[in-house]
Structure to design on (400 residues):
């Protein structure tokens, strides 16, 4: 997996210069197993893993998202809800090229005569496997009331990061700050939304979580993603703009705001969002979409940004196609023809590229003959993991 990332971002070697051995850990965090008799608490296992992933990511460890883990599980024919053996865990971690595996379980006990699960006592137990040395890592336990799940998860994250980052000693008050504490019912609604495969149900669960706890940004971000997927771009912007700059999801939120603004024809705003993201995540995808917005504004900078995208991924047909359009727009017909031909070399069935190649070879001015401009090809995915893996290998410090 890492070798693929290196190829995609090879141009960053010139930017980031020094290769060093020290780097953040790549951590596979799995949902915790419910060891209690209460199936209604199955959601807690996903809640623990989501909190750990968020906090590890905030302090610059590299964590795999749910989609990457699900894809690998499917490849290995593993059921997501299974209680895996250690051998299976190691096989999964090695498939993903992880440095550590973080997994665990939780138990719940109701007081005698009480039937309210929120009153139960819980114990969270975390295990680590160090795949670099192929031996067991730390075991960490937290115990308390289910009603205080958020606090328990944050304290667990703090203890875990002391193991992952020896000598760093992150301050405990950062983890137990008031804005980190989430209401139990809001956390449950959010997790049930994540686990649902029905988009309408997801929307209801996320919206309910926000109503229950308005400062909880995770469901806010998910609502923005949902509306973007539904092409309700105004609603997507409404939700995504709520994500504060201090939140780990802020760069991706701004990237998705760029996609939404672009789809609404607000290219000035779109270019602003993409440009902001490019300052901290100079990824191929970001430069491509920034170039698309700039091309719509007839800015010559679009050519440079498409070239940046191609430096990292020279065979990407979307980047080649977009650069061809930008060159054509600037009456660089021969250069544009080379890009469209390169697209066809990779995909001879690309009818749009063939049409534009013919027009560029005939030196037809951009937009001539009352023909509408061809749509540029955006890249909608924001995969910061690849960039962070490479940057971690090239820079001595652990911070972004």
């Amino acid at each position: 997996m890492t070798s693929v990332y290196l190829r995609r971002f090879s141009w960053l070697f010139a930017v980031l210069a020094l290769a060093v051995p020290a780097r953040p850990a790549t951590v596979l965090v799995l949902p915790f197993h419910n060891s209690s008799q209460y199936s209604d608490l199955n959601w807690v296992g996903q809640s623990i893993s989501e909190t750990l992933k968020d906090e590890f990511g905030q302090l610059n460890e590299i964590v795999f998202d749910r989609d990457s883990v699900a894809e690998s599980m499917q490849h290995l024919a593993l059921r997501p809800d299974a209680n895996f053996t250690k051998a299976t865990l190691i096989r999964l971690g090695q498939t993903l090229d992880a440095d550590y595996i973080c997994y665990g379980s939780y138990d719940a006990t109701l007081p005698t005569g009480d039937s309210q699960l929120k009153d139960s006592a819980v114990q969270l137990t975390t295990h680590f496997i160090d795949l670099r040395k192929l031996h067991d890592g730390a075991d960490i336990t937290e115990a308390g009331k289910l009603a205080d799940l958020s606090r328990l998860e944050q304290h667990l994250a703090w203890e875990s990061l002391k193991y992952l980052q020896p000598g760093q000693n992150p301050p405990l008050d950062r983890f137990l700050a008031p804005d980190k504490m989430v209401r139990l019912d809001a956390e449950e609604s959010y997790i049930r939304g994540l686990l649902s495969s029905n988009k309408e149900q997801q929307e209801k669960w996320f919206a309910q979580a926000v109503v229950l706890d308005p400062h909880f940004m995770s469901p806010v971000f998910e609502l923005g993603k949902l509306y973007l997927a539904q092409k309700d771009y105004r609603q997507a912007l409404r939700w995504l703009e709520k994500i504060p700059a201090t939140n780990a999801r802020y760069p991706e939120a701004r990237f998705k705001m760029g996609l939404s603004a672009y789809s609404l024809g607000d290219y000035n705003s779109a270019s602003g969002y993409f440009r902001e993201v490019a300052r901290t995540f100079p990824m191929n995808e970001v430069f491509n979409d920034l170039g698309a917005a700039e091309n719509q504004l007839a800015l010559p900078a679009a050519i440079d940004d498409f070239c940046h995208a191609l430096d990292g991924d020279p065979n990407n047909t979307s980047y080649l196609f977009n650069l061809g359009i930008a060159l054509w727009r600037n009456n660089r017909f021969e250069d544009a023809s080379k890009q469209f031909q390169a697209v066809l070399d990779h995909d001879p069935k690309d009818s749009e590229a063939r049409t534009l190649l013919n027009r560029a070879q005939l030196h037809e001015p951009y937009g001539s003959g009352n023909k509408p401009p061809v749509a540029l090809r955006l890249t909608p995915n924001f995969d910061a993991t690849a960039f962070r893996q490479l940057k971690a290998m090239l820079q001595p410090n652990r911070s972004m």
